[in-house]
Amino acid sequence: MKLSGKAFVFGDNIDTDMIIPARYCSSYNMEDLAPHSMEGHPEWKDGSFNSMVAEGDFVVAGENFGCGSSREAAPIALRGAGIGLIIARSFARIFYRNAINIGLPILIASEIVKSSSEGDVLEANLSSGIIQNLTQNVEEAAEPFPPFIQGIIEAGGLLPWIAVQKKSGQL
């Protein structure tokens, strides 16, 4: 699966309260959460992040992206806002698994993170793990997910994947 989008660049330790403030977590509905994506981040407190994102854009971040609480609302809010892929140097473990569970692709990379600036156009091949910053002419090979996890992402998350597996007699 190939994805492309514009980069929204963040630093280290972007926690779940920055991604979606707790006051909005009374719902896990994507449509309710998406308008408030990144409202807890100082740069996007005005709520404009969601209106700036085009469907398929990328979040590019430093270390420990998604740290903080174990709320699944954080990746749901980003996916609802239109984010098609998150690339970071590292992820908080629970955010990493929550993103997979809801079908939001994520990749661990370092060179692309260092070389990316706000608005750069990126392309990623989830099957091969190749990420390209087309604006800066930089390429990096990240470790792709195994086929099992790619199947979950392509199905749109764990629950849709289970439904497909049951329907086909695999489960």
Structure write-up:
By secondary structure, the protein is α/β, with parallel strands linked by helices. It has a single domain (2-167), classed as Aconitase, domain 4. It has helices spanning 16-19, 30-33, 49-52, 73-81, 93-101, 111-115, 147-155, 158-167; strands spanning 2-9, 58-61, 85-88, 106-108, 121-125, 130-133, 138-141. Strands 4-3-2-1-5-6-7 form a seven-stranded mixed sheet. A hairpin with a 4-residue loop joins strand 6 and strand 7 (138-141). Helix 7 packs across helix 8.
Walk me through the topology:
Layout: E1 2-9, H1 16-19, H2 30-33, H3 49-52, E2 58-61, H4 73-81, E3 85-88, H5 93-101, E4 106-108, H6 111-115, E5 121-125, E6 130-133, E7 138-141, H7 147-155, H8 158-167
Parallel strand pairs: 1-2, 2-3, 3-4
Antiparallel strand pairs: 1-5, 5-6, 6-7
Helix pairs in contact: 7-8
What are its keywords?
171 residues, alpha/beta, Aconitase, domain 4, 7-stranded mixed β-sheet, 7 strands, globular
Major sheet attributes? 7 strands, mixed
CATH overall fold name = Aconitase, domain 4
The number of helical runs is 8
Q: Indicate the low-confidence ranges by residue numbers.
A: none
The appropriate CATH architecture is Alpha-Beta Barrel
Q: CATH homologous superfamily name?
A: Aconitase, domain 4
* Mean pLDDT across all amino acids: 95
Order of the strands making up the biggest sheet: 4-3-2-1-5-6-7
